[in-house]
């Protein structure tokens, strides 16, 4: 069979490697095509250092933690059993999904290899893949806890294969992450050693599950296998993988025992509200988008559009985080957005960006990139420390001092998701449709773009975004050519904090300016883009100025937790006050009146270099008789993503702007 690679998880990389012979993918697909992450090279002051930290520090560190915590040992024990060895240690893994942590880190390592060769890492991955293959049962089943001890696997696994899949076994979840890792590794190396392992298990799933009477009718308890199967379909062109992905969507909600936690109470095509476990939900909605794009199923498109409107309009934190409740790691009710107890799992932020990228690729509307960017710079990036070795699982918007980053977790899904998302990030910057090139995100670097008609174009960004809104884009077509360049005007620069009315700015935005070769051009927005249609020659320059004043943000009055409070934003960055920067380390009872001006200053030695906001605020205390004492004091705010890098202490995102809204811990 011929293997054709058009991978979406790292932004539809559109790479092709021939291995065998077989069918081609279907005519349906996303109408907007992202420029492959391998064709985008960042050299900026913000993302490039973070991607390098992920490559040289976080990925090796995470592999080390997988070894130290016994995750590799689980594969070793399973392999020994399959070789006929009588092992003495048959204790089940800590969780039945522990297998996925090495898969996720391997996926991230593969993306990194695709842009930065590393023979030592490549050799390590080959050894790891050989271990995975040795732990795979002859029919393709790969699930170490059952192989280690079929009679006494993890208590969540059930007594037989698949019997507890709809609840806790995570067998299909494990498979989904294997499929994603395998396609990433194949993309990076062209080698099929891990891909063969994945295809063997995928074929087992195709035989086992489906609509036929002799097959199992089961919905995945934790979604992601749908996305993984779609990626295998893109690699191989084999229709059965896409059919199974669609079956897993279609069967959800049609069987007894469904519930909102698993998004299985009603069929996905009939859902209109973001419910249940937020990570599961984000993966489900992403899978629905993939299947809809490849099959033309508009019912799924209508459903995820409605769900997105509910999520973005009523359940999204100002940081882009989703999933308000600790209980069930789940969405709450409409406008239920507490700060101190906010959950906002890091994995949910990753899933939210997966979902918004796919909605953008379906619709070409910049509003999805607005949400993606808000999540990216705030609620996602907060999940990893500046040194790349500590992590957050929840990401609250207020702390009494009891939160600190962890070097690892028993349930370690979040570190792995960070390692795999960050190296794929350059693939989110640009897209194309026909003769239109879309500039979605901003960072210094280059993009080598091949248009659908074969023409080539190089774009070079020069900017210090997100700290500065001056952006210069040098356009270099291979030859003088007429085409359209669509530059995104972010919602935050257009007086739109988020799509809808969940949040609003209290002051008006400053005018955005756009020039080509020094000449100002008028901005006429089309779905959030200024489209420049002209004949381009090598060296033409686009200059975009996005003013970045300090903005105060107010929540919808239905968000009870934020009544009488404001958040601070500059450009795409949401700010917080943290204990080391403010007198007495007390920030939760600060009063920040709306008329207090704030100054933005870049501090190169603070937190690896960040913009800070400074001014005056009032420290408020309450006496026994209930009277308030206000003392003017210096005030400083830092980017939310950088908090908790200096130890434990108070932190707050939403500030009281009147006496009556001050909270006292």
Descriptive account of the structure:
With 665 residues, the chain is an alpha+beta fold. 31% of the residues lie in helices and 19% in strands. The chain contains 14 helices and 24 strands. The strands form three sheets. Strands 3, 10, 16, 17, 18, 19, 20, 21, 22, 23 and 24 form an eleven-stranded antiparallel β-sheet that branches. Residues 4-25 have low confidence and may be disordered.
Describe the SSE topology.
Layout: E1 33-34, E2 40-42, H1 47-68, H2 71-82, H3 100-115, H4 119-134, H5 144-148, H6 171-189, H7 193-208, H8 225-236, H9 239-251, H10 278-295, H11 298-314, H12 346-363, H13 366-380, E3 398-400, H14 413-421, E4 430-433, E5 436-439, E6 445-450, E7 456-463, E8 470-477, E9 481-488, E10 503-505, E11 513-516, E12 519-520, E13 525-526, E14 529-536, E15 540-545, E16 551-555, E17 565-570, E18 573-578, E19 590-591, E20 598-603, E21 610-622, E22 628-639, E23 650-652, E24 655-656
Parallel strand pairs: 5-9
Antiparallel strand pairs: 1-4, 2-6, 3-23, 4-5, 6-7, 7-8, 8-15, 9-14, 10-16, 11-12, 11-15, 13-14, 16-17, 17-18, 17-24, 18-22, 18-23, 19-21, 20-21, 21-22
Helix pairs in contact: 1-3, 1-14, 2-4, 3-6, 3-14, 6-7, 6-8, 8-9, 8-10, 9-10, 10-11, 10-12, 12-13
């Amino acid at each position: 069979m011929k293997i054709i690679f058009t991978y979406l998880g790292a932004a539809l990389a559109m790479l092709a490697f021939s291995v065998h012979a077989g069918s081609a993918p279907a005519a349906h697909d996303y109408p907007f095509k992202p420029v492959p992450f391998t064709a985008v090279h960042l050299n900026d002051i913000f993302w490039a250092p973070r991607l390098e930290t992920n490559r040289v520090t976080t990925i090796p560190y995470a592999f080390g933690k997988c070894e130290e915590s016994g995750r590799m040992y689980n594969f070793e024990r399973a392999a020994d059993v399959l070789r006929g060895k009588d092992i003495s240690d048959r204790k089940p893994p800590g969780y039945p999904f522990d297998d996925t942590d090495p898969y996720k880190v391997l996926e991230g390592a593969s993306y990194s290899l695709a842009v930065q060769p590393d023979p030592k890492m490549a050799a390590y991955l080959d050894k790891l893949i050989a271990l995975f293959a040795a732990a795979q049962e002859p029919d393709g089943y790969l699930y170490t806890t059952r192989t280690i001890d079929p009679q006494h696997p993890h208590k969540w696994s059930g007594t037989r294969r698949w019997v507890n899949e709809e609840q806790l076994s995570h067998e299909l979840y494990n498979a989904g992450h294997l499929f994603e890792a395998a396609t990433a590794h194949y993309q990076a190396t062209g080698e099929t050693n891990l891909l063969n392992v994945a295809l063997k298990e995928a074929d087992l799933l195709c035989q086992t599950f489906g609509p036929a009477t002799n097959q199992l009718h089961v919905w995945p308890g934790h979604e992601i296998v749908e996305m993984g199967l779609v990626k295998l379909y893109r690699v191989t062109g084999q229709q059965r993988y896409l059919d199974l992905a669609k079956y897993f969507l279609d069967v959800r909600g049609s069987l007894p025992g469904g519930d909102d936690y698993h998004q299985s109470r009603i069929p996905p095509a009939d859902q209109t509200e973001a419910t249940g476990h937020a990570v599961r939900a984000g993966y489900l909605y992403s899978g629905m988008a993939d299947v809809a794009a490849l099959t033309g199923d508009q019912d799924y498109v209508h459903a995820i559009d409605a769900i997105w409107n509910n999520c973005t309009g009523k359940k999204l934190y100002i940081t882009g985080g989703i999933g308000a409740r600790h209980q069930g790691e789940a969405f709450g009710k409409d406008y239920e957005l507490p700060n101190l107890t906010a959950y906002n799992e890091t994995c949910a932020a990753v899933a939210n960006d997966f979902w918004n990228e796919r909605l953008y690729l379906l619709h070409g509307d910049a509003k999805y990139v607005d949400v993606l960017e808000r999540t990216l710079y705030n609620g996602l990036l907060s999940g990893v420390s500046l040194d790349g070795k500590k992590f957050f699982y929840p990401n609250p918007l207020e702390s009494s001092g009891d939160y600190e980053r962890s070097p690892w977790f028993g349930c370690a899904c979040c570190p792995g998701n960070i390692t795999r998302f960050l190296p794929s990030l350059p693939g989110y910057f640009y897209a194309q449709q026909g003769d239109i090139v879309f500039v979605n995100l901003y960072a210094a670097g280059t993009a080598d773009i091949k248009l659908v008609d074969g023409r080539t174009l190089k774009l070079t960004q020069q900017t210090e975004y997100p700290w500065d809104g001056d952006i210069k884009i040098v356009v270099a077509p291979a030859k003088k050519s007429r085409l359209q360049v669509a530059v995104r005007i972010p919602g935050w620069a257009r007086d739109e904090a988020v799509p809808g009315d969940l949040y609003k700015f209290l002051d008006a935005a400053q005018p955005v300016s756009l020039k080509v070769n020094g000449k100002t051009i008028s901005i006429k927005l089309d779905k959030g883009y200024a489209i420049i249609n002209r004949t381009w020659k090598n060296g033409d320059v686009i200059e975009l100025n996005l003013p970045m004043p300090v903005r105060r943000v107010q929540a919808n009055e239905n968000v009870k937790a934020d009544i009488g409070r404001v958040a601070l934003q500059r450009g795409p960055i949401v700010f917080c006050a943290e204990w080391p920067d403010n007198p007495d380390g007390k920030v939760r009872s600060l009063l920040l009146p709306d008329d207090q001006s704030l100054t933005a200053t870049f501090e190169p030695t603070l937190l690896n270099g960040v913009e800070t906001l400074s001014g005056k605020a009032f420290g408020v205390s309450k006496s026994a008789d209930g009277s308030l004492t206000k003392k003017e004091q210096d005030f400083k705010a830092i980017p939310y993503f950088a908090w908790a890098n200096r130890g434990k202490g108070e932190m707050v995102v939403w500030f009281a702007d009147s006496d009556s809204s001050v909270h006292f811990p």
